[in-house]
Structure formats: structure tokens, C-alpha cells
């Protein structure tokens, strides 16, 4: 390799050694700091560790390599070997947990781990130039993948979740920084790597220092942005995959329908980064052992080759995990009810039936009028279970097929679920912890007595595909008269400071309104007209809303921009002023007086609705998050919200009508 390629390889190797720590949990530990003080703790620990490395770098160059006492030098090398071996054993344990928590159901993990082991052995016995070349090829691709995931998650970020800035104070931030110095411990591997590189490849020591520290700084900056991204998407107790913090971001990322594909991309990146790190560590250990006179290079290569052959035999067992589509049942909707007598949950699964041989019809009444109105394109099955995981296992035993939620379009809750303390949030968390379930799956509340009754009763007259029917029903153009949400958005509302959540109410005939929540408690039910007003005030991006003015009895095509919210805090009371721009166009010709009447209708409806909502303590406009940004410390904000009732005064609404 020429000097330019060597320098690129060293930069990529150093960057990857820091990057892999992000995948195996250090940022998750730092997130225990309140607010964005976790970023400050990370910067502090990064500065301290970099200073230590700067000293070590000169120490290894001017002391270790110049030691004439062979015994002392070999002792140092033995200590390094012991550290790297023990560190890599723990690293492998963390990597396995990461893959296990992030992998999709039915993934043959033991084959994945076998292939990782084979790859690490093959690469680890190569020379320095081969390892640097591999890093030069793989790390830029890894960086591109991470950029795609990060950019696609921006629309779901809310930087207000990262506030207050200093968390619980400077002292806690500094102590956390000292506590988590290990966050950059993987950087020791490239330091040792540079130490033992052949002399002819490391003559330009100044250039190597610049490359090394630019990579460290680059990875440190990326780590900080990772922390900010994780803070901007609240994930408290929402995900199982805590050992892979970036998995949160990939689950909250999305390019149209590619959400789950970004999950796969994240898993591939973490595995590739782990392979590169372990291969480098193995190469460093091998060279260190060679330097102190342990087994010769040929012996190590022979041993590694035998291990590769033995391990390589393991996955050569054919398609053992092959699963035909006939063995899988795809659920397109799930209803959740609560048995008031036993307290257990009732899960109603609606499975697609492409052959239209539904099993709901009673054979004895096949000619009756009732059977003719039943939906034969789906099979509905109801199961009593404590949670969705037990429900899936029960369904599997009942139908003799493996149920899959990869095509799930809709989750329907009954009102009894929403009225039960803690049930709704726990159930939503269970659903989003199933990797097959897409985060953008639509959720709603059934207007009927039970969710089961809705799923069993829905039967579109023209659309034969129920999956397509649900997609059309919940499309932007079909939901201008309700408040549309999905699993991801609703959980963000429940777990973060981005305002209170809402769920649309659905009946077999369409939407009938929405329910607003205060925290996890349902408070008020809105009509379709009131939902229209909320959509206008929130400036939700969707097709134009057709608004009927009561004064003129005319229909107007309306679009609105995101509201400008100004907050003020006085005597532990939050006051707010909301200003929004509304663009209106009448379907028929009319005078400007009609627009003035429209303005009066919008102002009156908005003021009355906002007063009704905030009297019931539902922060649908997310005023709380804007107020939180005015505080520097977390305890100051908590002192304001400790009395949860009526901390937000009725906001003032100003509408700027353009036509």
C-alpha cells in the first residue's frame, strides 16, 4: 500500500474502533443523565481520555519501542495481550446481546455468529496492509449507511426533549464523565496497532498523529450527535434493544415504507463494524505473541485455518430454516380488549385469506343472509392472553401456522383498554418491541363496544383486499376529519415532553372523532369538526382540508402552516400565545365579506376548542416542551410541574387568514 492508502486505512481503523462502542451500549448508559447533560458528560470524558491517549502515544513511541530490556518490554506486551483477550471476550458477549436483541424473529443466530467467527479468523491472520485495505473499503460504506439512517430520522426528532441543558447540575455531569471514561477504551487497539506496525510503514510519525487524532475527534463528534439524536427521540422503557442504542434511531427512521429495511441496515452495520474490530484485535494479539516469541506465524496460520475449516462445516446443513409461505399466517389487523370479569386481555387477530376461504362462516348456515354479509377475505381468531407474546404463541398452537405481524396495518383498542391505568402504554410498548411490527402501524379506538366487534364486522363492499382497505382508510386524504396517529408517534407523545397524545375513533362506517389524552389518561372526546380545527391549528401536512363555514354555509379549501408558539412562565403558571397562518380558497365565487365571516368562525371555533382542551389539561399543542426550554436545570423544571393540575393557562390564539 502507498502512504495515502495507509493513512486512509489508519483513519478508518481508528474511527471504527470508536464507532463500535456506540453499537454495544455506551450511549445508552450515558442517557441516564437528565437532559443534554449526557452530551456534556460525553465531551468531558472524551477530552480526558484523549489527553491520556496523547501521553500514551508519546510514551509508547519513545519508551516501549526503545526499551533495551527485553524482559520489561515483553512484560508490557503480555499485559497488553491479557487486556485485549479479556476485553474481546466481554466485547463478544456484548455483540451477541446486541445481535440477539436486534435480530428479527426466526433469524438463525447461530449461523450468523458462525459466519462472524469464520470471517474474524480469516481476516485476523492477514498482514497489516490487508487489514488496512479492508477498513478502507468497509468503513466508508458504514459511514454512508449511518448518514442515511440519521437523515431519515430527522423528521421524528424533537430537540426540545434534550433540554434542560445542564441536567441535574455541573457536578453530576463531571462525575458522570469520570464514571464513563471507558466509553473510548476501544481506541487502545489502534494505538497498539500503530505501535507494532513495521518500521518502514510508520516513519512519518507526525502524519500518523494527525490521522490518529482526526479520527478520534471525528468519532467523538459523531458520538455526541448520536447522543443528541437519541435524546431527541424519547425511548424511555420503550425498546428491548437497549444494548444497541442506534437501533432506537433506525426504528424511528423511515423513507416511505422502508422502515424495517433501515432496521436491517443498522444490524448489518453493527455486525460489520464488530467483525472489523475483532479482526483487528486478533491481528494485534497475534503480532504481540510473535514479538515475545510465542507460537510462530506459520503455527498461528495453520491453527486458524483448521478452526476455519471446522467452523465452516457447521452452516453446511442445507436450508434447515426454510419456511414456506403456506406455513405462515399474516395478520393485517389486531384488536385488543379487556375482559372485565377476569381482567385478562383478549387479542383478536385478523389474518389475510388470499384464497377467500374464510373460516368465520358457519357451515350449517352457509345459505343464510348472515353468512353472505361476512367478510370471506379474512379469518378472525380471538385469544385470551396476558400479553401479545403469549397471544401469538396461543394462535400458533391453535391454527398450526406461525403468525407474522410483518404486514400488520392496524391495531384497534377498545375503550375499556384506554380507561385502564397503564394498560395502553404497556401494550403499545409490547407491540413496538416486536421487530416484525412497523413503527408506522396505524392505531385507533373502536366506537363499538369491543375491538373484536369492529374487526368481525368490517366488510368493505368494493375493496377485496383488507390490507389495501386499511391503507386507503388511513391515508392522509381520508383522515382530514380526524386526528391520525401511529404506534411510533403515540409512544413518543406518551414517553416524551412533546405534548399529549390522541387516538382516532373508528366505526365500520368510518371515523367518528378522536379521544385526547392527558399523559396516559383519556380526557375528552372530540367530534369530526373539532378534529378539523385541531388539524388546522397544528398545521399538519396533508391534503387540503375542506372546511364548512357555519355563517356562510359555504365550503372552503384550507391549508395551514405550523403554529408559532411563544411561552411565558410566571408564578409556576405557563402562559402561551399561538399564532398560525391559514390559507383559504372558496370553491365558489364570493365577496370578501364571506372571508371575514370565515375568519370569525375559525377564531370562535378555535378559542372555544382550545379552552375546552386545556381546561381538561390536554397539552395537544405541546406548549409544555416550549416552556421546558427556558430552564437550565432539570430540578427547576420539575419544581414547576410538580403540581400537575392547571399549570398551563388557557392559551391565546391568533389567526392570520390569507386568501
TrEMBL record:
The chain crosses the membrane at residues 7-29, 35-59, 71-96, 108-125, 137-156, 176-198, 210-233, 264-287, 299-316. Residues 513-639 form the Spore germination GerAC-like C-terminal domain. The keyword Membrane applies. This is Spore gernimation protein GerC. The lineage of its organism: Bacteria, Bacillati, Bacillota, Clostridia, Monoglobales. InterPro entries: GerAC_N, Spore_GerAB, Spore_GerAC-like, Spore_GerAC-like_C. It is a lipid-anchor. It comes from the Bacteria. Belongs to the GerABKC lipoprotein family. Residues 354-368 have a biased composition (Polar residues). It is found in: Membrane.
